[in-house]
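Weekly sync notes, structure subgroup
Attendees: PM, AL, DS (notes)

Item 1: joint prediction request from the bench team. They want all two components modeled as one assembly rather than separately. Inputs as received:
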Amino acid sequence: MTMEQKTYEVGAHPDLEPPITTVGVIGWVRANLVSTPFNAILTIVSLYLIYISVVPFIEWAFIDAIWEGSSDAVCRNENGGPKPVACWVYIDVWFKFIMYGRYPVEELWRINLAYIIALAAAVPLFIPGFKYKHWIGVFLLFVYPVIAYFLFVGDSFGLPQVETPLWGGMFLTLVIAISGIVASLPIGIVLALGRRSDMPIVKAICIGFIEFWRGIPLITVLFMSSVMFPLFMPEGMNFDKLIRALIGVMLFSSAYMAEVVRGGLQAIPKGQYEAAQSLGLSYWKMMGLIILPQALKLVIPGIVNTFIGLFKDTTLVLIIGLFDLLGAVQATFTNPKWGGFHTTGYVFAAFVFWVFCFSMSRYSQHLEKKLHTGH
Amino acid sequence: MAAETKHAAMPAKPPIWNDPRYRAIFFQILVLGAVIGGSVYLVNNTITNLEKRGIASGFGFLERTAGFSISLSLIEYSEEMSYGRAFLVSVINTIMISVIGVFFATILGFIVGIARLSSNWLISKIAAVYIEILRNIPLLLQIFFWYFAMLGALPGPKQSVVVFDLFFLNKRGMYSPKPIFEDGFSLIVIAFILAVVAVIFVARWARKRQDETGEQFHTVYVSLGILAGLPLVAAIITGFPLSWDYPALKGFNFKGGLEMIPEFVGLLIALVMYTASYIAEIVRAGIMAVSHGQTEAAYSVGLKPGPTLRLVIIPQALRVIIPPLTSQYLNLTKNSSLAAAIAYPDLVLVFAGTALMQTGQAVEIIGMTMAVYLTLSLLISGFMNWYNQKMALVER
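Output from the run, pasted for the record:
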């Protein structure tokens, strides 16, 4: 074929397809995977890495995994050792325990009912343009905890009492994380206001409090709450282990919350404060009506991130002997029949935590984009 | 008449309970009183409770014999030694895991962060998956996973995983060759310190000369030469006073060499991988914060890609990276306390755990434990603040 030089009149040049190597799949591969020799090598190396990690995992978790059965025997080989594959039978057998701990089976409806109320109340919050959002907020923050308390603890309204040592699993994780975050929000706001106050003594006390709790690990806080709180209390006053852990978690997370709120307060321009003052508003009216509504809106993503951190940190309560989700999984391994299925148990727990934390972090990123009104 | 006008011109003096200054003082006295009152109440309760339970107080217990053994100790320790010594051992163990963890987490974090920005789609996505998986799973769960599920599934000493016949990995831990310092090794250390001092002086001189004359000096090569050369000369003079102790399988386990207990290995892997996922995001954000115009400007004044990265991009990215990086270092140090869950002998396990159980002196022991972590936090943030100020933008 000979090269033919064609001439066209101005504007009459026919539309040509772009070269096949720059568009479509081929173009994408050339641009993103093999743009330079070095990149091509990297691509091959990473393909190999994916091959040696993903394929065995899929085989372990799905293809070779044991899905059916009712006892540990199906997951064991001839010598009684666990087979080197995922044993989902283990999850099937222990699911209730991992989700609810040792909460009595006939009372589980109480937990489920509380879940359903929370979900039903929370769904309208995500509907844009729904009118009564603040009433739902008030309900969730003030009324719901009371309902949940009476449902979970019982001992009134004809419900039998369920002692807190029986609480466990996912349920306990949610109780600790949610009550920790709900209680830490008001304390955190007060601390943040104190830290930005003009009064030197109040400021010093708030800074000292915040930096103290931020400087020590949660584990020492939990140790403190389990061994030192009983010493702090007057004679005869005895707290439940769960309440003690909750107080520790609450104090700890309120310090982090205070820093998040402070970030929001700092982002409010000075003109807002001055405008509020020039209207003659008192300090609390200025904060409550002008500053905090704007500041808290700014820090919603930060609050969600604090919640994710707290949610992950609740696993630490297993060290002081409470059975949260991870603690429940860990406890199943002490069962003589089910020892040795560590990997399956941990992968399942990791998956549950991951689903919660990943969706929350995506939600917080979404909020960040939505609330970012340009600057 | 005149008096009336004067009166009207004066601003109305508010009553004393409406004067912000007096209000502030009153309010502060109230808060201070509440805090002091609360503390006195708690201290009183504690003293009564301690007396009632017959628990001794004071720091005398630090002198008493501890009576428990510690599985890992960098300084000499035995069961006959005191609680004070056990405290020191556990503090050193905490610092050791933190320092090593920070070192590897920084390297891994930078690698993953840069990979996340790679133009290679596959590399970037692998880094993203790494970050999203690791940071959304609780650290304690990851520690358990590595310690119980992965290290626990390793073969026994006879079927160890062998790397280059030097490193052995099995159920009991990891074994590597151990350096043995013979007489005269201190001379090499002195030579190395001298070399570091010399490099600092050379760098200062080179910068001064470049400021004055514009001439560049090959500081990097000369420094490397000094750093490698001086100790080498010292080693030749003293006749290489260093030998290696290789681990060898004797009986049921390896003997000799540097032994790393599995608790250490598991905790380190988990801490490094978890913290690296956070550092990676920080590094990515830092590099993305430097606008592309900076790169273009650097190219247009004739800088090559290497110096552009070193002199233009990284110094600006570091400004964004350092503050959040500091808090990750602090987090890693505090998270190393999770060691208690898998029995790595750190401060929390040895001191706030075993020593507390034995003596019952909760107030002193928890107080000391918190004081150590607060001191470490202050030291790290102090150092990083100093470094941050050094790197900060000098504004006119």
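Discussion: The first helix of chain A runs from residue 24 to 32.
Action: AL to compare against the crosslinking data before next sync.
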